[in-house]
Design a protein that fits this description.
Elements (H helix, E strand, L loop, with lengths): L1 H16 L1 H30 L10 E6 L13 H10 L3 E15 L5 E8 L3 H5 L3 E4 L14 E4 L1 H8 L9 E4 L2 E9 L14 E4 L19 E6 L5 H18 L1 H4 L4 E5 H6 L3 H32 L1 H9 L4 H37 L14 H26 L4 H6 L8 H36 L10 E7 L2 H4 L5 H16 L4 E8 L9 E6 L12 E7 L3 H4 L4 E4 L13 E5 H7 L9 E4 L6 E8 L14 E5 L7 E8 L3 H15 L5 E6 H44 L1 H9 L4 H33 L12 H27 L3 H5 L3
Parallel strand pairs: 3-8, 5-7, 14-19, 16-18
Antiparallel strand pairs: 1-9, 1-10, 2-3, 2-6, 2-9, 4-7, 5-8, 6-7, 11-20, 11-21, 12-14, 12-20, 13-14, 13-17, 15-18, 16-19, 17-18
Helix pairs in contact: 1-11, 2-9, 2-11, 2-12, 9-12, 9-14, 9-20, 11-12, 14-20, 14-22, 14-23, 16-19, 20-23, 22-23
């Protein structure tokens, strides 16, 4: 213990005597440790921590096995889920939910509240209980049950002033009196990763699932199951496949080709975040390695200067182990100092991450430093101290005593040290180029996505959403009232100041909603059971195409005369025409949209393709019908503004209130913002990766500068002799530059080779550019070479300015 205290005291004095060295080394480590701590905190919270539900390892996602590449989302119907509950022995429970929105009216202003329709057993299966009242019960489900609702703690506080007497009271949702039976605990986020849902209603009570409760072909629900005791995911999948086969045989029209897919719920939730987070974790790992290389170089240079001191200690009887322990003690203190500074940087970095987190990555806003992250920081600090301190300590702990004691200077022979320092620089340059190539590929990919033509013009378009309550506008008997409301709203908005074109649509591109319906051609035989022709479905008012400037290719657009007409019409996209009418003229042909019982529609026009869900994916076939034909109660407004957006929004609010004071608007925002949200995750990942790559490049440049500066110092006498013998400054400059550029070139070659391997790993994250794009590699290589040239030129320039007389006297 006494020896340890002595080593600590000596290490503190040694670091204090060299403040520049200590600060430079500590800040280099802080950058690497801080970045690793921040990203690890995100990885820990989003990928490693168990889900906040009871026995999370037993929870599985249940979906349609056609996968994410299918044209329709992975979803199930209510009858399918009921059959799965009956027939499955590997799943102890199955719960389902679907999204929606309702208008909350009564006390206070009307407002749209995001809701989720959930099966009664879902929350008990997850171990979620209300803090007040009771959970939903099986008797609450179905269109014929008495309307009840669960309220979020946040809405209870904001709208109802945390009144405990709210339980049992009636509130008005979509004009329907609904009894509050429970208040959920604070912070509940369900559906998963959604912090906007504030009401939970029983399945069958929502405006959509009310009408589709017994429709087997209506696949719109997400589902979660809990594995029975002792059952594996593979066993559950085998049984689900068998159930799918039986359902396809019994119900070929709706279930042919559909296969239930079972996957661990934690993996399903993280599948979109995992690649980006692991990429960033690898990036900050490289930054830390570069920082360690820099500090190891600093320690080698400092140890070389201290060789005479170490020789004296060895001559006085200090063992090699004691010298190594002393040097490692200094490294450990340096690592802990870097860890403390890195922790401060991590706190600041997480604040920045939460600030920059896009709406599509809401979970990032909840990432915090916890005990595990603090332990990670401590472990990384000590590990890096061992990594960057051990090799220098071993190299300098066995000096040539006679040679060292005879030298009048603290400089000793450093040939082996210099080779090691050069190797470290090569590795740093290679790693920095590797990171920059990854950032460059993602940057070019982002640029490619940003320049994708979505098929419409978002500039100057204001959007909003509203829910038309079923009690007043729902059902076939009230369809005329609903149509009249939409017509009046569009007509009033069209004459409002600053409005060029007003229209309604369901669903709006990039709003997060999409509808896919099957259709058939009337002039062709019926499709075989289980075979469908699918198209993205849009219900639009006549001005919609003009508002978004979607080009008409042939025929005509939907007109006012088509609204409410017995002659049903449809407009199709070029992609639908090419796929389902190859070599034919679709105009005048008739289609049936939505299956048996639907009316025939004449194709009257062909419009350009629109990317409505993703900029990266090719456009799916699209089909447009007049707004009066829409069965949905949820409506979105698209207004082409020709003036101040605030005035247009004010007009929109005023006209809606004038037509129906019980309605509320939601999600009022420019269409450009909706489009930008689709790029937000890419932009966020790219920003972080570029920041880490830039830090790596700076650290590598500093490392190269340090090596060359030390080399120039070691070769001062040699340079003086060369200049005394007539060497020109340009020759000396080339000599030093050549040494540094050789190291850089080797690092660039090795980094380029490693980048080709990296490209394979991130191939799925790039768009519009080859993972082995030569232009990206060339530009990054030139950039790294330029930084290396600058880092080498500065010491070389200094070497040429040393007078020969001074250089020759530098012993």
């Amino acid at each position: 213990m006494d020896h340890l205290l002595q080593d600590l005291k000596y290490a503190v004095r040694s670091l204090v005597r060299a403040p520049v060295f200590t600060l430079v080394a500590a800040f280099a480590l802080a950058i690497g440790i801080g970045a690793n701590t921040a990203i690890f905190s995100a990885v820990n919270a989003l990928l490693l921590q168990p889900l906040p539900f009871g026995r999370p390892a037993e929870l599985v996602y249940v979906g349609d096995g056609r996968g994410p590449g299918a044209e329709r989302e992975e979803a199930l119907s209510i009858p399918d889920i009921a059959d799965l509950r009956k027939e499955s022995h590997t799943l102890a429970a199955v719960g389902a939910w679907g999204g929606g929105g309702v208008t909350l009216s009564g006390d206070g202003d009307a407002e749209i509240i995001q809701t989720a329709s959930v099966s009664a057993g879902l929350f008990p299966m997850l171990g979620i209980k209300p803090q007040l009242g009771r959970p939903l019960e099986p008797g609450d489900e179905g269109p014929k049950a008495a309307p009840v609702v669960l309220v979020s703690a946040e809405l209870w506080k904001r709208r109802f002033s945390k009144d405990p007497a709210l339980i049992g009271k009636v509130i008005v949702l979509d004009g329907k009196q609904t009894t509050v039976v429970g208040v959920m605990a604070p912070g509940l986020r369900f559906p998963l990763d959604d912090d906007k849902t504030q009401l939970w209603i029983p399945l069958g009570q929502g405006s959509i699932d009310h009408d589709l409760y017994e429709v087997r072909g209506a696949h719109f629900l997400n589902a979660i199951g809990r594995l029975a005791p002792g059952v594996s995911v593979q066993q559950a999948q085998a049984e689900a496949t068998a159930i799918s086969t039986r359902l396809a045989e019994r119900f070929p029209n709706s279930n042919q080709g559909r296969t239930l897919r079972i996957a661990p719920l934690a993996d399903e939730l993280s599948k979109e975040l995992r690649p980006a987070l692991l990429l960033l974790l690898g990036a900050v790992g490289f930054v830390l390695l570069i920082a360690c290389g820099n500090v190891a170089n600093l320690l080698l240079a400092r140890a070389s200067a201290r060789q005479r001191e170490l020789a004296v200690r060895a001559a006085l009887g200090a063992s090699r182990a004691r010298v190594v322990r002393q040097l490692l003690t200094e490294s450990a203190l340096l690592g802990l100092l870097g860890g403390a500074l890195g922790l401060a940087l991590a706190v600041w970095g997480l604040d920045l991450v939460r600030l920059l987190a896009p709406p599509t990555l809401q979970r990032l806003r909840e990432v915090r430093l916890d005990g595990l992250a603090l332990g990670f920081t401590g472990a990384v600090s000590l590990l890096t101290a061992l990594v960057f301190g051990l090799v220098p300590a071993l190299l300098v702990s066995r000096p040539d005593l006679q040679q060292m004691l005879q030298q009048s200077s603290g400089r000793g022979s450093a040939g082996g040290h210099h080779r090691l320092r050069g190797a470290l620089v090569v590795v740093e340059v290679a790693l920095s180029l590797l990171l920059l190539v990854g950032a460059g590929l993602l940057g070019r990919s982002f640029a490619s996505v940003s320049h994708v033509d979505p098929g419409f013009r978002s500039e100057g378009v204001i959007t909003a959403a509203l829910v038309l309550p079923k009690e007043r506008y729902g059902g076939k008997e009230k369809a005329k009232l609903k149509a009249a409301f939409l017509d009046q709203l569009v007509a009033r908005l069209a004459t409002a100041p600053g409005v060029k074109v007003a229209s309604t649509v369901i669903p709006l591109p990039f709003s997060g909603s999409n509808i896919s319906l099957s259709f058939t051609r009337s002039d062709r035989p019926p499709l075989p059971p289980g075979k469908t022709q699918d198209a993205a479905f849009f219900s639009v008012s006549p001005g919609y195409f003009n508002a978004l400037q979607i080009p008409l290719k042939r025929g005509r657009l939907i007109a006012a005369s088509d609204l409410g007409s017995e002659a049903k019409v449809a407009v199709i996209s070029e992609s639908l025409a090419a796929r389902y009418f190859p070599g034919e003229d679709p105009l005048g042909k008739r289609v049936v949209v939505g299956g048996a019982g639907s009316s025939e529609r004449e194709v009257i026009g062909i419009v350009g393709n629109v990317r409505a869900v993703s900029l990266e994916r090719d456009t799916t076939p699209q089909l447009y019908v007049p707004s009066h034909d829409s069965p949905w109660d949820f409506v979105q407004v698209a207004i082409k503004a020709d003036g101040n957006a605030a005035n247009v929004i004010a007009s929109l609010r005023r006209e809606v209130k004038a037509l129906d004071s019980g309605l509320a608007l939601d999600d009022i925002k420019p269409l450009e913002e909706l489009l930008g949200d689709r790029l937000a995750a890419r932009r966020f990942n790219l920003t972080l990766l570029f920041a880490f790559a830039a830090a790596a490049l700076v650290l590598a440049g500093v490392g190269l500068y340090g090596v060359m500066s030390y080399s120039v110092t070691q070769r001062t006498r040699e340079i003086g002799i060369r200049m005394a013998l007539g060497a020109e400054r340009a020759q000396v400059l080339r000599l030093v530059l050549g040494q540094g550029l050789k190291l850089s070139a080797l690092g660039i070659v090795l980094g380029g080779a490693a980048s080709l391997l990296l490209a394979r790993l991130i191939a799925g994250m790039v768009y519009g550019v080859s993972p082995s794009d030569p232009l990206t590699y060339a530009v990054i290589a030139v950039l790294v070479g330029a930084v290396a040239l600058l880092a080498t030129w500065l010491p070389a320039r200094r070497a040429t300015r040393v007078p020969p007389a001074i250089a020759l006297g530098a012993e």
